[in-house]
């Protein structure tokens, strides 16, 4: 191990050994850096491949070790840093410290513990996010534009005066380069421009070509090749160069610090793209050499981290387009006024606060981009730039909108002030502005907006402000977008005669403005999510009677009725969902003949209007959504009047039958949703719907499988949560069938032959039949879940879910939802890995914030190369026993990134547990992204990729996109009913309250999840939608421990009798269970006092003792104690009558309450718990006997991954409630070979341990339960009279106090024991 001075730099290690790990543990500032070999790819390769393991080795160093020291130890000239797998790799300066760079990266990612940062830095998987190279990874062929190269015989000139000589010939760009072989890089090079020249075959010499340049002084080079194929390849490539002018060079993302030298010999380059490199200012081939491109017109230098404006660029007078975005530039030089031909200047994403006056000299400048800088006002230089028509200043720091400044700029027509800090507006004079036609004020803080002075305004965007009142001029107004404000009044004068689109959704409007009803050309009107009522004056007839209106959105209001139509209208789309409608206008379908889309879901409709006025229907309706109404079978005949109907949703109504004759006439039907009704059958006439591809009929009473497997285009069938018993399979299944859901049909039995036939289906969902030892009453006691995922109108499902009802050895649960938006790879990866990561992190930390954060960050790393370009929203919920709140049994911890959300139903009210990380809904995150100089496009996406600001994956968007989650924890109570997890599409169409109310009274969680997805689709969702519903039963009535009453198998020929629960006359300190003895007495005290040796009662064939220990069943509310865990537990102790010092008379015939006499033994119920402080230290020390494990236990104990039980949990007689007696017949309660716990795993049987051994272990336990086994061998019956009960207690207590006090154990000295009381 090589140590380099005080920095302790250790070099050249291929792997970690114990010596290296010991060295790292000595100081958290020590670590390692993985050094990769160079990666070189050819021109045909689009991405680099990972280096093999032989090209990677680690260098041990400290955070103070500079790059120069590592280079010296490795024999390298420089180190290169590569982030997120990009081709871009930055050369480190000699003084930069690689390990500190890694530590800083992990810290920004979200890790905050120095030890954890050190651990993560040593993980080789981190190379997918950050890695170091000893050589520069590059693509040589692309960098130099080398098309062909080789060593050939060359002769210069057309005559034969020159001799043939061996030379290196390179066809690069548009030039032929001939140089000496010996000194090809430093010697003399001859450059022959080929543009406009020619390439001819040399007839006198085999396989030779003559390359000639253009012009009067043209030169010629003859090149002789060795083979015909090689000659033809050069001729084809050179002919393309000669005939085509290659004027654009794209060298973006190549880690360049200088321009390749060969490019300077390409005289025709007019556009040079050097985006996302590391170009230097003053060095050979640097930016100061760009003047050599005499014809250069376009130059892109964005994302080069220049820091300063390159003054040398001002000497390239031919430039017409210059892009210097995202370079950290703080000011512009005055020399920029020399670029008189400049037409486009992009300076977005810098730190500019002012613009120089010399910029006004650029009279040809037509486009100036200064978005996402630090301007606090509109620069005055705009007044001089008379050819600029747009003020593009999104993402700056403007707080005041000064219309007077804009009035002085008569040439400005478009103003983009998105995402500023606008709060007020200033009007210097009453003079109107006749020039501005488009204005974008989205995502500001405006409360009132008066733009009536902008008389030429055609389009206004003012979404997501805090507007209460809006005033505009209607002379030229064509489109108005004012969604997501607090508008109560919108004033437009005069009436906008040119208005075509008006969007006022998500405001506080109580009526539609009068001027909107008078607009003659309005085509789109969206007033959804407002406070509109049913009064005719508030909802004018003239809106529906408009001769221009094509689309009307009035959903989510309080409309109780619609006016009757008297004339024909051109309306095509009508959305009136979530209102209070009890009926639709009778003339709706007869007057709105162009109506193609109608959504009337979530109303109170009891009937439908007729579509037929005569013998033939003229209806053009194609999409009809009527979910969540009060429709009955009487409405079905009305559907026949729509022969063009393609999509029909009738879910969650009161349908009992669907007449076969009516369904037979809907021949154009493609999608049919009948879920949530009371249907018993699907008509056989569905076979006539030849175009049907989707049938959703879950949550009905269907017992006969419909005849849909003969439909030629059927793709998706959902018949879950019905009463199916069998399926009649045709001879051949349709090849189009992709998804068949049969879950929730408890009586359905599929034969192996049927399953084989269904094997070609992409997704087949059926219930998993429980194993013979499965006790479902235990596994689903406290929580049970249902999951539904629907692809909608997309071809693939990009949602995955995680559901583990028995997590962490059965003492908790884990649920997750992952939405990849457009990719399905990342959600599937997270589904497979995140539970394992959570389990590892939970074992390392008990702090919910720590282990949840680390779970997300580690999962982010484990995505590897797939996470470099792809991203996914993630939601993770973890239910665990609550150790912080003694009044709660469980706590719920929720973490999320992206747009997936979780909502808890508490006493019927929604409790939001998540945070939506999107630019539109989280201003703080939007500001963070702006401060880090990301470019937010007009569709509100970071760099045009995603609207999320925190995701797993998308590492190439770091640091704008982070994986650090939002975390919330809440103790679960008996008032908590259910938990809903959903992706973005679900919550966009359902409010928290509606989702809770929709599923509160649904018995089956699967049916509840299905219902939520169905509602979302019926409300207009066309994207992937996923929902998970977790029913919670957190309360003592849900306990299924044997402590609460499951019958125990006794010896052969004897069934253990379980008495009723004791009367609560003397409740215990915390659990409320009565105890006949003092709760301060331990089992060891009772055992030593009476002098008995306890053993298990259970009888097993094959054991010499005739006894078989049987593990006690525990539920998730009362988990089995683990090593070092001890809790109070009612127990049974057996006393022998041989002991006479207890002062009890065996002739007493009055039994003591709480004492059971059975033959020759007496069973006394004792309450044993762990006390704080000295009570446990006073417990006597007993000799521990090692149990003999049966071979079966060794064979089965570890195979199920369950924490091993001990004899503390065996052979116990416990009180049982009467409502649990039916569980006695459960196979898991009577099985002598294994026990099914609440986590669904089988617990191997334990060997019997006596009471002495158990009592010795008891003081070491902090939680869990304690069970004292009973004795089968006492010879005499021992009865404690009621009147002697107190005397018995007193004598036993005195006897114990007379014993010498034992020395406390080492564990007791170091850790104070606390009392943990868990309610039973």
Automatic annotation (TrEMBL):
Domain PPM-type phosphatase residue range list: 784-1032
Region (Disordered): 1057-1154, 1265-1320
A Pfam family per the record: LRR_8
PROSITE patterns assigned: LRR, PPM_2
Gene3D superfamilies: Pleckstrin-homology domain (PH domain)/Phosphotyrosine-binding domain (PTB), PPM-type phosphatase domain, Ribonuclease Inhibitor
Biased composition (Polar residues): 1119-1143
Coiled-coil intervals, chain numbering: none
InterPro entries, sorted: Leu-rich_rpt (IPR001611), Leu-rich_rpt_typical-subtyp (IPR003591), LRR_dom_sf (IPR032675), LRR_domain-containing (IPR050216), PH-like_dom_sf (IPR011993), PPM-type-like_dom_sf (IPR036457), PPM-type_phosphatase-like_dom (IPR001932), RA_PHLPP-like (IPR055071)
SMART domains: LRR_BAC, LRR_TYP, PP2Cc
Membrane topology of the entry: Peripheral membrane protein
Subcellular location: Cytoplasm; Membrane; Nucleus
Keywords: Cytoplasm, Hydrolase, Leucine-rich repeat, Manganese, Membrane, Metal-binding, Nucleus, Phosphoprotein, Protein phosphatase, Repeat
Catalysed reaction, written as an equation: O-phospho-L-seryl-[protein] + H2O = L-seryl-[protein] + phosphate; O-phospho-L-threonyl-[protein] + H2O = L-threonyl-[protein] + phosphate
Ranges of compositional bias, category Acidic residues: 1303-1320
Molecular functions per Gene Ontology: metal ion binding; protein serine/threonine phosphatase activity
Chief location bin: cytoplasm
Function in brief: Protein phosphatase involved in regulation of Akt and PKC signaling. Mediates dephosphorylation in the C-terminal domain hydrophobic motif of members of the AGC Ser/Thr protein kinase family; specifically acts on 'Ser-473' of AKT1, 'Ser-660' of PRKCB isoform beta-II and 'Ser-657' of PRKCA. Akt regulates the balance between cell survival and apoptosis through a cascade that primarily alters the function of transcription factors that regulate pro- and antiapoptotic genes. Dephosphorylation of 'Ser-473' of Akt triggers apoptosis and decreases cell proliferation.
Protein name: PH domain leucine-rich repeat-containing protein phosphatase 2
């Amino acid at each position: 191990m090589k140590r380099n001075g005080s920095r302790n730099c250790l070099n050249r290690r291929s792997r970690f050994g114990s010596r290296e790990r010991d060295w790292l543990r000595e100081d958290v500032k020590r670590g390692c850096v993985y050094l990769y070999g160079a990666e070189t790819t050819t021109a045909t390769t689009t991405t680099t491949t990972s280096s093999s393991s032989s090209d990677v080795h680690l260098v041990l160093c400290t955070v103070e070790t500079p790059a120069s020291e590592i280079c010296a130890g490795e024999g390298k000239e420089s180190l290169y840093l590569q982030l997120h797998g990009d081709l871009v790799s930055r050369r480190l300066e000699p003084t930069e410290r690689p390990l500190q760079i890694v530590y800083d990266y992990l810290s920004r990612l979200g890790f905050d513990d120095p030890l954890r940062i050190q651990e993560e830095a040593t993980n080789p998987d981190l190379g997918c996010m950050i890695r170091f190279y000893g050589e520069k990874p590059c693509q040589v062929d692309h960098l130099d534009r080398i098309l062909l190269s080789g060593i050939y015989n060359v002769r210069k000139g057309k005559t034969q005066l020159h001799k043939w000589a061996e030379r290196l010939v390179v066809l690069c760009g548009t030039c032929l380069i001939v140089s000496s072989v010996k000194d090809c890089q430093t010697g003399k090079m001859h450059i022959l421009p080929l543009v406009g020249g020619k390439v001819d075959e040399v007839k006198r010499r085999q396989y030779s070509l003559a390359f000639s340049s253009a012009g009067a002084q043209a030169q010629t080079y003859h090149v002789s090749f060795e083979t015909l194929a090689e000659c033809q390849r050069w001729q084809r490539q050179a002919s393309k160069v000669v005939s085509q002018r290659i004027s654009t060079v794209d060298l973006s993302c190549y880690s360049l610090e200088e321009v390749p030298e060969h490019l300077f010999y390409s005289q025709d380059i007019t556009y040079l793209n050097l985006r996302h490199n590391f170009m230097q200012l003053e060095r050979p081939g640097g930016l100061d050499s760009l003047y050599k491109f005499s014809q250069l017109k376009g130059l892109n230098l964005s994302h080069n981290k220049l820091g300063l404006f390159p003054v040398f660029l001002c000497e390239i007078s031919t430039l017409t387009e210059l892009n210097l975005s995202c370079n950290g530039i703080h000011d512009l030089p005055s020399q920029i006024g020399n670029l008189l031909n400049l037409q486009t200047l992009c300076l977005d994403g810098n730190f500019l606060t002012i613009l120089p006056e010399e910029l006004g000299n650029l009279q040809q400048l037509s486009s100036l981009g200064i978005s996402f800088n630090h301007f606090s006002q509109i620069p005055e230089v705009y007044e001089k730039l008379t050819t600029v028509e747009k003020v593009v200043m999104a993402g700056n720091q403007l707080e005041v909108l000064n219309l007077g400044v804009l009035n002085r700029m008569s040439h400005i027509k478009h103003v983009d002030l998105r995402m500023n800090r606008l709060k007020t507006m200033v009007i210097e004079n009453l003079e109107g502005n006749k020039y501005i036609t488009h204005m974008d004020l989205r995502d500001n803080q405006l409360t009132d907006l008066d733009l009536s002075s902008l008389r030429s305004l055609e389009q206004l965007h003012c979404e997501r402000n805090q507007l209460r009142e809006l005033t505009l001029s209607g002379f030229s107004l064509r489109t108005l977008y004012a969604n997501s404000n607090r508008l109560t009044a919108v004033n437009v004068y005069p009436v906008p005669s040119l208005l075509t689109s008006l969007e006022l959704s998500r405001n506080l409007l109580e009526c539609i403005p009068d001027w909107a009803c008078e607009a003659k050309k309005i085509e789109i009107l969206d007033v959804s999510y407002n406070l509109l009522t049913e009064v005719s004056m508030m909802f004018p007839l003239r809106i529906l009677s408009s001769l221009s209106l094509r689309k009307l959105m009035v959903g989510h209001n309080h409309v109780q009725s619609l006016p009757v139509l008297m004339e024909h209208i051109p309306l095509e789309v009508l959305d009136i969902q979530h209102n209070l409608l009890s009926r639709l206008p009778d003339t709706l379908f007869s007057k709105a003949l162009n109506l193609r889309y109608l959504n009337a879901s979530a109303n109170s409709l009891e009937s439908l209007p007729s579509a037929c006025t005569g013998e033939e229907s003229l209806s053009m309706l194609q999409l009809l959504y009527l979910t969540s109404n009060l429709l009955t079978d009487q409405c079905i005949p009305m559907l026949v009047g729509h022969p063009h109907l393609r999509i029909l949703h009738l879910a969650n109504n009161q349908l009992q039958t669907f007449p076969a004759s009516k369904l037979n006439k809907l021949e154009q039907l493609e999608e049919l949703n009948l879920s949530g009704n009371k249907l018993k059958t699907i008509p056989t006439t569905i076979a006539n719907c030849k175009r049907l591809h989707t049938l959703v009929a879950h949550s009905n009473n269907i017992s006969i499988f419909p005849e849909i497997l003969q439909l030629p285009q059927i793709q998706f069938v959902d018949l879950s949560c019905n009463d199916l018993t069998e399926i009649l399979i045709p001879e051949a299944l349709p090849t189009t069938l992709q998804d068949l859901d049969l879950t929730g049909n408890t009586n359905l039995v599929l034969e192996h032959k049927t399953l084989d036939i269904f094997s070609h289906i992409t997704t087949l969902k059926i219930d998993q039949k429980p194993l013979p030892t499965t006790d479902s009453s235990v596994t689903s006691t406290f929580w049970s879940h249902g999951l539904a995922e629907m692809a909608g109108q997309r071809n693939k499902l990009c949602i995955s879910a995680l559901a583990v009802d028995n997590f962490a050895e059965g003492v908790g649960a884990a649920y997750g939802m992952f939405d990849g938006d457009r990719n399905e790879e990342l959600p599937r990866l997270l589904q497979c890995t995140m539970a394992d990561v959570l389990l590892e992190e939970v074992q390392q930390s008990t702090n919910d914030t720590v282990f949840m954060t680390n779970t997300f960050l580690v999962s982010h790393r484990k995505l590897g190369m797939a996470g470099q370009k792809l991203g996914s929203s993630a939601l993770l919920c973890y239910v665990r026993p609550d150790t912080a709140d003694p009044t709660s049994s469980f706590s719920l911890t929720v973490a999320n990134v992206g747009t997936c959300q979780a909502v808890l139903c508490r006493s019927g009210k929604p409790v939001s547990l998540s945070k939506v990380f999107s630019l539109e809904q989280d201003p703080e995150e939007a500001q963070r992204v702006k401060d880090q100089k990301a470019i937010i496009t007009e569709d509100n996406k970071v760099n045009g990729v995603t609207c999320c600001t925190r995701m797993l994956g998308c590492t190439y968007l770091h640091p704008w996109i982070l994986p650090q989650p939002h975390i919330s924890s809440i103790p679960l109570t008996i008032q908590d009913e259910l938990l809903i997890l959903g992706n973005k599409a679900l919550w966009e169409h359902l409010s928290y309250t509606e989702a809770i109310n929709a599923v509160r009274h649904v018995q089956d969680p699967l049916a509840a999840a299905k219902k939520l997805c169905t509602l979302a689709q019926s409300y207009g969702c066309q994207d992937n939608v996923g929902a998970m519903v977790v029913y919670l039963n957190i309360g003592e009535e849900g306990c299924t421990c044997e402590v609460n009453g499951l019958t125990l198998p006794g010896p052969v020929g004897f069934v253990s009798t379980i008495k009723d629960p004791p009367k609560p006359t003397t409740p215990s300190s915390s659990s409320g269970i009565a105890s006949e003895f003092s709760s301060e007495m331990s089992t060891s005290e009772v055992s030593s006092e009476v002098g008995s040796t306890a053993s298990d009662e259970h009888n097993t064939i094959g054991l010499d003792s005739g006894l078989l220990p049987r593990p006690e069943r525990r539920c998730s509310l009362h988990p089995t104690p683990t090593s070092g865990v001890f809790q109070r537990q009612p127990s049974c102790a057996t006393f022998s009558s041989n002991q006479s010092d207890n002062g009890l008379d065996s002739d007493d015939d009055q039994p003591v309450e709480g004492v059971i006499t059975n033959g020759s033994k007496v069973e006394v119920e004792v309450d044993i718990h762990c006390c704080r402080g000295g009570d446990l230290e006073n417990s006597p020390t007993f000799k521990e006997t090692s149990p003999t494990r049966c071979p079966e236990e060794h064979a089965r104990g570890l195979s199920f991954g369950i924490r091993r039980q001990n004899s503390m949990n065996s052979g116990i007689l416990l009180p049982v409630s009467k409502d649990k007696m039916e569980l006695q017949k459960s196979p898991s309660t009577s099985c002598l070979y294994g026990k099914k716990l609440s986590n669904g795993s089988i617990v191997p049987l334990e060997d019997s341990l006596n009471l002495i051994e158990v009592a010795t272990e008891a003081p070491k336990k902090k939680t869990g339960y304690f069970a004292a086994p009973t004795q089968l061998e006492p010879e005499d019956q021992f009865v404690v009279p009621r009147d002697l009960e107190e005397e018995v207690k007193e004598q036993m207590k005195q006897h114990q106090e007379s014993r010498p006090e034992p020395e406390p154990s080492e564990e007791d000295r170091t850790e104070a024991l606390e009392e943990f009381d868990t309610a039973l």
